Task: structure prediction
Amino acid sequence: MFAIDRHAWANRWRDRHPGERLLLAGGGLLILSLLPVFTTAPLILLVMTIATVAGAGIPVRDLLAFMAIPVGFLLTGAPFLAVSLDLNDGIRLAFSPAGAMTALEVTLRSLAALSCLALLALTTPVVELVALLRRLGVPSAIVEIMLLIYRLIFLFMEQAITGQHAQAARQGYSTFGRSLRSLGQLVATLLQRALQRARRLETGLAARGFEGELRVLSPVHALSWPRLLRIGVLLGAVSLLALRLDRWLG
Amino acid sequence: MHIMEGFLPPIHAAAWTAVAVPFLVVGARRVVTLTREQPQTRLLLASAGAFAFVLSALKIPSVTGSCSHPTGTGLGAILFGPSVMAVLGAIVLLFQALLLAHGGLTTLGANIVAMAVVGPWVAYGVFRLTRSLGGALTIAVFLAAMLGDLATYLMTSIQLALAFPDPTSGILGALTKFGGVFALTQIPLAVIEGLLTVIVVNLLTQYSRDDLDALAFAHGGAK
Result:
């Protein structure tokens, strides 16, 4: 259903501890926000792309598909930063060199940050990341709700897609007015079904003596300290190189 | 409209995250209390969250031919109340970033403020106000969903304008620039979302009265 989720469960790094990838992607984002963008961003983009494609074995095509929608947003958004609006004598739009620099900076930073997000999202199942949140002090009630949401998303999504197909097959989306009515019916039905499912789950759990905690088994991955160290060294090397390049370029 | 990963300058990203945190803490406290009193609430909340995610993945018909997605902000705020919506919205936004590449981790805070805090509170406020002034349910729902939507876009425009002030005309100029672009595309979408939400609520009041009674909606004076 979601290509990203499929890769997250079936990439070469699936048996490794999620903390390792969190360190790599999170560290990348941190470096990106602290060091000069113009030299850091291309390096981060390079490192993350290599790690995702060569390391985790994600096909290049799927990585590009991941980037496609956000890059579309970038292409429509960034040009607005390069033009300047003058309100003094009437409304006047003009190209501005300072704005163009900002636009370039934003584009580079966004692409690099996106590659960090891609690395994390394409290699790590959402549930494993959510489980880490518990360690960060997020209340266990919230973590459990998040895990339940993740599981329910796929059930509801299937209902939504099936429903929309059925409506489309009956000309439900042939005109604008019909589309609106069909979508309204679909949303109302989905909500009804969602609430029904919640009630059935409640009854089922109550019958099994539910007392407020859902305990599930999750696969245990050992944290590899040598790998963490290597990731740290890699991030350190990227930072040093970025700083050196920045000084060299002046 | 989600702000994409890395788009905001780091300081802005951090500041908006700091703004979002208190709302999340209050919302989370409320969720923890709710689930302690009634353990089964977590299933209801989980269903609501998954529903909100799926809603945001559906395509909305648009007059111009382009496609967009319903935000569900208004519907969620009316059904579940704004403080719970902050938590559910934040979870949905995180999942959208990780499962659909919509939004991002560094911009999560800014997106939470616009879509899970400002939008729902405006929608809820408009809904309560219209109802207390004696407005019909249909009108209250329409205004709540539409204005909630517009408030979200306005907030996003403000966030972008603060981050990227115009070189000559400053923050105000940038706000006109971003707001103008959004107004062109988003006002029709907000009206469509308003109409859609009315259809949904009408169907729900006709066919699943008891479901609505079970939710906060019934306490909002919707009867």
Observations:
- The domain at 10-219 of chain B is CATH 1.10.1760.20 (Arp2/3 complex 21 kDa subunit ARPC3).
- DSSP finds eight helices and no strands in chain B.
